[in-house]
Amino acid sequence: MEPPPHILVVDDDREIRDLLSKFLERQSCRVSAARDAREARRLWPLGRYHLVVLDLMLPGESGLEFARWLRTQSDVPIVMLTAMSEETDRIVGLELGADDYVAKPFNPRELLARIRAVLRRANGEGNASQEPPAKAIRFAGWTLEPARRRLLNQDGVEVPLTGGEYELLMVLVERPNRVLTRDMLMDLLRGRQAGPFDRAIDVAVSRLRRKLEDDGRNPSLIKTVRGGGYVLAATVEKAAELPASLAHAGGATP
Question: Where in this protein does the record say 4-aspartylphosphate is found (predicted)?
Answer without folding.
Answer: 55
